[in-house]
Design brief:
Helix content is about 45%, strand content about 15%. The protein has seven helices and nine strands. The chain has helices spanning about 20-30, 40-55, 70-85, 110-135, 155-175, 200-210, 220-230; strands at about 10-15, 35-40, 60-65, 90, 140-145, 180-190, 190, 215-220, 240-245. The longest helix has 29 residues, at about 110-135.
């Protein structure tokens, strides 16, 4: 089934058990799509799948998957094909940005882990799913990036590098699997998720002061862009990056 229609599709969301990913899974289920929730937290994925099926009556599957591992990415794709026979939509949402001290304190292990989770997995899943979608006649992929990709700071530089690579990956995949597969990027600014609960008041104030909109975003606002890019109204949009950042990037 082409990703140009809403409802009845098979949608895979990585990092789907929390934050933006969780909100996206709920939104797709509400539209009648079959949702595959993937993250390292297998139990949380299974629990959310049961919750979505109970609430919306649509099939949902929770799968434990460490996207930084090539074999896990392949296993995820193979599991979905075994269960449902196709993949119509892929949302590469999994990400991580661990704290560190100075740039010289970034270890090789930390650097490799950040690149693996934020970029390597998206590459492998994008390639596998893109090829399958093209053979099936259509599909849509959305990569969830970050304004850090274009506003890299010393406190999250490995993350910024990975997200900049993700933006490049979008263009490359869009060209590789055109014309039937559309691949786009959503680039959020600061967003209120469960992680934001640990923000200090000082950080919240500082962030709000750097965003022209005067506040942080909500997960549903990012998901709105994801739904658009994988829906029927975005048929002529591919290789694009949509900022959902309150005007933060390129605002100065």
């Amino acid at each position: 089934m082409s990703a140009s229609s809403d409802g009845g599709r098979v949608v895979v969301v990585t990092g789907g058990s929390r934050g933006i990913g969780r909100t996206a899974c709920a939104a797709y289920a509400a539209r009648g799509d079959t949702v595959v929730i993937a993250s390292r937290r297998a139990e949380a994925c299974t629990a959310l799948a049961a919750e979505l099926t109970a609430e919306h009556g649509t099939p949902a599957l929770g799968v434990g998957c460490h996207v930084g591992r090539w074999a896990d990415c392949d296993a995820l794709v193979d599991r979905v094909l075994a269960e449902y026979g196709r993949i119509d939509v892929l949302v590469n949402n999994a990400g991580m940005s661990p704290l560190y001290g100075s740039l010289t304190e970034v270890t090789e292990e930390l650097f490799d882990k950040v690149l693996a989770v934020n970029l390597r997995g998206a590459y492998r899943l994008g390639a596998r799913c893109g090829e399958l979608m093209a053979a099936a006649g259509g599909g849509a992929i959305v990569n969830v990036s970050s304004v850090a990709a274009v506003m890299p700071g010393p406190g999250e530089l490995p993350y910024a590098l990975a997200k900049a690579g993700l933006n490049a990956l979008t263009v490359g995949l869009a060209r590789a699997y055109a014309p039937s597969v559309r691949v786009n990027t959503v680039m959020p600014g600061p967003v209120r998720t469960d992680i934001a609960e640990h923000w200090t008041e000082e950080f919240r104030t500082r962030i709000a002061g750097t965003v022209p909109a005067g506040r942080v975003g909500e997960a549903a606002e990012v998901v709105g862009a994801i739904l658009y890019l994988t829906g029927p109204d975005a048929g002529y949009t591919t290789g694009a990056t949509i900022k959902v950042d309150g005007g933060m990037a390129w605002s100065t």
